[in-house]
Amino acid sequence: MPELPEVETIARGLDKRVAGDTVESVWIGSRKQPLKSPAGVIAATLEGKRIVRVHRAGKHIVFDLEGESPPSQTSTKRGGRAARGQTRQAASLQTAQWIVHLGMTGRMVVSEPAAEIAKHTHLIAKLASGRELRFIDPRMFGKLSVHLQSGGFDPGGVEPLEVSEEGFIALFRGRKTPIKSALLNQKLLRGVGNIYADESLFRAGIRPRRRAAAITRGQLGKLHAALQEVLGEAIALGGSSISDYVDADGEEGFFQLQHRVYGREGEPCLVCRTAIRRIILAGRSSHFCSKCQK
Ligand SMILES: [Zn+2]
Hints:
alpha+beta; 4-stranded antiparallel beta sheet; 7 helices; elongated; binds zinc ion
């Protein structure tokens, strides 16, 4: 499952490749599972729009769109397509966002039109440049939707790479849940997943089961720094990949960050040689060193 650094890497890759391009037409497959907005609304929102920017919000990929073709559901005039570009006064600039969540196995790739269409392709957006944006997802936990309201898409929680130390500490005040569960709570922090929660707790020397509210400000300050550090390192490496997705060019991607505890059960701690332990916490594996983490 792509985590925040992978999504950041993919969003940056897409931004580099398709920003400034325009969606000419959209094909959407018959499977309903990936669609969180109606197919017709997704198609009408994308078609004719220029991709201004692609960025990440939590674990979502956000395409900022701009154009003069209004989404069909809010359209008051018919024949918007024919009228497009005709007059500027009637068609005020429309902005919208296309929101993509990759789920477990979702991929968003930029393809040449001649490239074979992969099995489990659910959406193809033809671009003015001649290339295509394709969304492929065998297991269909991914989600496609559009955001039409002003103000922009907000996945909730605070951005772990942007939150201040004070803001971070405040998130855990009075929380009786284990710190690991609080880190994974998407209403608090958006986009922190299992790997980076384990890795940042190790770097901060905090056991995953410690009650969030019982952790000192000083330790939370350390955790804040550790989380930003570990996410930053993974982004710098292009996101560490443990599953079978590919980058925006369709190439097998991503460096693997050297995990210090995640996935290393029974192996010696890189600091003190104690065997790394694994426990199940809130249904998820947690890895830690019982000597380095208190
Ligand atoms: Zn250790």
